[in-house]
From TrEMBL:
Species annotation: Ketobacter alkanivorans
Keyword Signal: yes
Name assigned to this protein: DUF4124 domain-containing protein
Signal peptide residues on this chain, from the entry's feature table: 1-21
Keywords attached to this entry: Coiled coil, Signal
Keyword presence, Cell membrane: no
Domain DUF4124: 12-59
Entries under Pfam families matching the protein: DUF4124
Amino acid sequence: MTARLAIFICLSVLVSGSAQAAKLYKIVDENGSVTYSQFPPQPKPQQDQSSTLKVAEMNVDGESASQVRAVGKKQYCGEIELPVVNPKNPEEYLELGEYKYTWTRELEGDTDLNDVRFRLHMNRYNLNRDPSEAGQRKRDLQCAVQWVDNQKGDVQKAQTTLKNESEQLQQEISRIQSQRDKRCGSQPYRDPNQPGTQILWDRWSECYHEYQDELYELEYKVSQIRVK
């Protein structure tokens, strides 16, 4: 046997082994019991042809993502409902990162459920979970994560919009503070034993608080803007 022929035979074995590992058979017997196997059941003898055994080859690779589908105004990746983002509220785009984090964590944690041998192990110990459901869930999660990635451009625009808004509010706050300090001056000294100092302090306090409501409102708006 030549070296080239030996290599060809080895590659053929590897390819056939990989193809076999990707298959999973759902077997339903006459009593309705469901089992899963990497291998199809052996043919029944001629006298047992009356058996109602049902065998279905299942696609459990889970490698290609599901497709986004629209139902009315909502979008779905399989059973996963995608978030609806209002372009008028750019803060909502920043929440997509939280969705992606949750879906990615589930996707990484559920990877072993998409392994044929792990599913066979579950079936052997009567852990009743249809392996095709695990594969479908994986495809749905991949679709959802990909959908978030496709919103990257809108997320960046939202970040820029919120950053500009925050800077404009900060400029307005600085302008009002400057106007207040110019009109009211610095906080005066107050001594309870000197009535004249109390009068000056009261005048300053009244002037100072004329600006506080507007400043509090602007500062609250800034605190509500989350720029990531």
